[in-house]
Amino acid sequence: MNSLTSGGSQDARRFPEGFVWGVGTSSYQIEGAVDEDGRGRSIWDTFARTPGKVNRGDTGDIACDSYHRLDDDIALLEGLGVGAYRFSVSWPRVLPGGSGPVNQAGLDYYRRLVDALVQHGIKPVATVYHWDLPQALEDRGGWASRDTALAMGELAGALAEALGDQVAMWITINEPLQTVQQGYLNGTHAPGRRDPALAAAAIHHIMLAHGYATAALRAGASGAIVGPTMDTQPFNALDEDATAVALALDAEYNRVYLDPVLRGSYPADLRADLMPPDELIQDGDMALISAPIDFLGLNYYRPHYLRSGDWADLRLGEHPVAGWPGAVHYMPPDLPRTVMGWAVVPEGLRDVLIRLDRESGGLPIYITENGCAADDYITPEGTVDDHERIAYIHGHLEAVLEALAAGVNVAGYFHWSLMDNFEWAEGYRRRFGLHYVEFGSGRRLAKRSAAFYREVAITNTLVPEPALAAPGRALADSGQRGGDAELPEAPAAV
Ligand code: FCB
Question: What is the pTM of this model?
Answer without folding.
Answer: 0.93
